[in-house]
## 1
Amino acid sequence: MIRSPVPEGPDEVAFRREPIFRLLDGEIVGEEWLLDHRSPQEALGWLPVYQALCERVPHAYTPPGRCITVNATSRQLAHRHFQPLWWSMAKRACERGKKLAIEWVECTDSPGEGLIFLEKLRTELGVSVVVDDVGSAGLDGIWRMTSIQPDTIKLDGSAFQKAQRDPWQRDLLAGIVETARVRGIPTVAEWIETRQQRDFAVQLGAQYGQGFWFRDLKDQEYPKCDF
Amino acid sequence: MSAANKLPAPSLAAERLKTFYGDIFQEMESLISRYQSFGNWSVGGIPHLDPVPTQKELGFWYAKGHIPGFAEPGAVSIALVPGDTRLGLFLPESAMHSKDGSAWLEENLAVSYDGQRPQTVIRDPSRVLFDRYFRDPPFDAQSLSKALETPYGADAHILVQRLAYMVVTLWAQAIRILYAEGRVRSEQYLVQCCRPLSADDLADLPEGILVQAHDIGKADEPWFASYIRTSATKERILDHLRAIGILGPMTVELFSEMAL
């Protein structure tokens, strides 16, 4: 885990940067920026969070080729007061040669304007689209996956956990991974907490992973896959 | 009763009153506008009062004002009834609570007009009404009758002056108390125009602060989004930015997490 100092910056909004690994060799290929801390006076809204992301993401130190991913709901993408922030973040990242991906997370409603805006960010500023939480018992994973041609699919963490003991859930996830693979879309398995879970993710066909196990491996050698 | 002393027909009386009250309130609004064009009012430190349509023929006048930091607007109302004129101050219920939770803030607001408690306090879940009664001249029946007889005469003029003074004093005194307690907070606005705003651009706005400015245009179409904080109203911000020379298309929007 790459942890920013807390609190960070004048706005007292801090993020933790959770690495995304290639499952076969442990190479870090990306990092998801997750909200780690915000001061109580900032806790009422998302604006300070996205303003902080906008300031920090384009200037963050990341090795060449590593992607930074940030989360957004359809509603946040459709919000006309937030859109300048998304646009500016993507524009500045593009100008600095940074790879930015937006993780489209589930939401109780999904305004179409959000989808149109996301496609525009991809077309005009090279933002990658990650569809998050696919395969869950949640709200709209399959709808989001089929509403846009994603660049990456993330399997829902709780669905991944359940798949290890439930053949029906396992087959469903394996089907999603295979459907994505045929279309050249890589898959990330979330909530990987043990070596066995890493191996299970590989068996499912996922190429990338994310979770506490990787965090704890930070200074250790990455164990080989067992097959 | 002689023919000359007969009361006008009801519809005629209503029309006459409507005209009379309409003229009085129009003149009063004109005076209030002049009050609002200098000092704290001119830069939005005291939120503007915006009249809303009312039943003028009944002597009702009502104006709302957005108090930065509160979702529920404040308002001032007048019921210009001969012999029983009422002046109401509506404030958000959430504005009544002082930082330490004690009742002193509500007490100070209640007496903010002239040091006296209002005759009636009515509260609902979202707001509180402080209602004051005025029965002495020029609000007694005789004075109003004289003003009605000579719509542009001295009595009408005094009435207009008095009403404008009461509205402005009632509203400004209450807002100043809320300022003193730190309850009037600056709010965040999104300004989009052809150049990024700087801190200097906002120096003359009350509590004007630049949060962030973003270049969101294309090479041949410069367009910038600036997030600012101030306790000025949207209209005041727009007027101010025009006054400092920002030309071309411009939008100023109060930031809302819920806006889509």
## 2
Amino acid sequence: MTSSGAAGEQAGVAVSGEGTQSLTASQARILVVEDDRDIAGLVGRELRALGHTVDIIGLAEDALVAARAADYALMIVDLGLPDRDGLDLVREMRRRSIEAPILMLTGRGKVEDRVSGLASGADDYLVKPFAVPELRARVAALLRRPSRIKRSRLTVANIVVDRNSLEAVIDGSSLPLALKQFQLLELLVRRKNHMTPKRMIEEALYGFNDEVSGNAIEAHIYKLRQALRAAGAEVRIETRRGIGYRLVECAPRPAPDA
Amino acid sequence: MPEERSITAAELALLDPDGAFSSRLAADRDVLTALARGLSTAPAESRQRRLAEIEGVAHRLGGAAGTFGYLAVSDAAFELEARIAVRRGGAEGPFAEIQDRLAALVSTLDEALR
């Protein structure tokens, strides 16, 4: 996958999320999932000309990896991909709580494809062949949509933390956590890759007048680690003695031998 | 949509600045011509396989060519795809119709490449 290449150049899906948060609506990070090199190249060229950062991927499985790794403002997904149906891909993304708006590209005259696309979780569709000005207009319309829902959810690896429902989800399954452990997870996820001082955790989890025992934070960390490990979370919490804790992504653990 | 647009040469050049899509049209034309050769006399299994390949090329060409401004190519490709799909769906339309549509698409490609 590449930010400047074309579909099919998929050696390694190394998506950098750096700088995503500072992009404005007029400089969005957009994922294009399209195996037709010419169409992908045209779409990428047009979007870059508008100031957007564009990643182009030709395979559904690589797109899924990229969508989980980066915080895209919009995804453009072709219905007919070589390794997997585009509808399946959209369903899988939504199942994994990937909330970015999706513009689906469909073939001409197939009403059922368009209906299925929207029912699967796409937000809009564009019929091929399409006029470039219509592509620009639909992209702009989708990027204008409020991102309230998206901001209420934080995603790291296979974990989604929903601050509205106070729920953590791993690979689509809810993770039962006590409130303090949920708050701890949310804080660490928000500060992913950064060291979080113990004092900051205490301030986030306890009020000024609360009595905090000497090892309370260590106990919460211990329980949270256990819960994450049991649920197959692809993260780990590192400890730096005397300083604090840091949540980092890690490779999925291999399945136990049958 | 596409049929309502008219594309100028300047717009075509903007859509395909390096001529890559034009080269693809030529390549697709050659593929279609090769697949069409001897199609009517090919054994049933081979014919079905080749028709499926032709249908795939026509589908991709229909979507891409119209987007790049080659509206007549797009229309001809979609007509061919639809004709093959009808036959694949079980309806025994005259095979000659598919051949006619295929010849029309190749001819339209020739025109576009001229």
## 3
Amino acid sequence: MRRGAQIAALLETWAAMDLFGRNRKEGDPASGSLTGSLFSQGFLSYVFAALCFPDPSPARYAAATMAFTGGLGLLGLAGDLQDICSHPADRDLVAACPISASTLRAAKALRLVLLLIPWHLGLALPPALLGIWIGGPAFPLPYLGLSLLHALGLIACFHLPILAAGRCFGSEARTNMAVTLRALALAGFFLGSLLALRAAYQGPSALPGGSPLLAWLPPAWFALALTAPSPTTLLPALAFAPAAGLLLLAVSRLPVRRRKPRRRGSRFLRATTAWMRTSPLDLGLTEGLGALLARDRSFRLRALPLLGIPAAVVVLALRSGVEDRDFPLFLALVHGLPLIWLPFLLHFLPYCEDHEASWILESAPLDPIRAGRRGLVLCGAAWMLALQAALFAMDALFRGPLAALPTTLAALGLTWWMLPLLARSLRRPVFSLPAADLAPPELPGLLLGFGVAVPIVQMICERLPLPLHLGLGLLAAATGLLRVRRAFALPAAGGGAPR
Amino acid sequence: MRPSPLRTALRRELRAILLVYLALSVLPLLTGFACSGGL
């Protein structure tokens, strides 16, 4: 079979999977799943372009809109593609194909480009057409071409560290890198859009790094190439995507380093839960849930990017300059962020890619929901202890250990008190439902209310005199620990658990 | 020979994407004309 025919056959199969896969799973075989999301994302791009529109400078308009469409395309397509390409069915399809590695690489690159072109054209069309009134009738065509090159380069840059981590440190490092970059891209996109909108009106001085930073940002190269074309401005713009593509090709040729599987020590969970365990079953449940939390790909992909939002809150607050008088309140809020984040994380807990493995918990002589809640309370208590210890270290650097201790103890006590209550919201055994069936939370208002109530309690505690605050923190932590010990406790002997 | 159902579906999807492009083109053109006093 010729190489071209092999690539064409793979592309045809992938096109069916990419365009119709999601709707076919939901029982609608005829309609595609791309058009709906293309329209909604394109509309978002139009709204952003319309917000930038009154600005008279074509270079600023082009840079801001290119940055927005590039980021939007990166988040929408790169994330989805990452999921699709590493789907087990797709891996099996590719592994069963009698083709060479180079043909497969070429087919994968073509798949990405063929999906990216129609997707990105939809995103770039509204700002390109609106640009006629800013840059004249010759604006749209070069804008579309350059914007497409920009998006291709961005996607290649996004995949570069992921691929390099996979080649150098194995598939686990690859997933970790993908999750981290996705969280950074999500947080960076929100912050970047706001900054780009401000910079479109006020110029480069509105950006944190000013003009020197702008010289390092690809959208600025493309905007310059579009509005003032000369060999010096065209070169970086035209070379960006090919250079990133070549680098990606070079990294993909590196030999894959396979690491020997090693037993993960659970010394951390063993040591931190030593005071909380009441049954020998507790250790197994905690270690099992801890391993699932750390390893399930869909859980990590969904839960970790949420961390980007509190991180963005902290960065924005620090940048806006918190006054000395309000600094303790700000740090109390930071201590409360892990607890606010917990209910959102719990919502993802029943969903898992390898949900078939839930038979292990279901066939054990335990109530699976109770066992899941117990494991969750212990795991949560241990991880929150580690998180609050890290926050204490940060807080102590700013305010000294004596001022940081009561805030940390109060936050830890409140978290340990709330954990059993939050664990009650777990109404399905952990990791027992397919990851694709994720449903929105039933009571989003309750989650938001919890997110508002926790900082209020933290701030009230922060206003108390130091000895009272310290005493209250100690009391909360000690009684919280007792509550964690008793919550959903399993029988000490093992068998015959309460149902 | 009957055309392959996949090809037919792909062609239909392509037509749907073109319609989306058309819808996405109308909004900025209207905004541009309205802001420049053309409407």
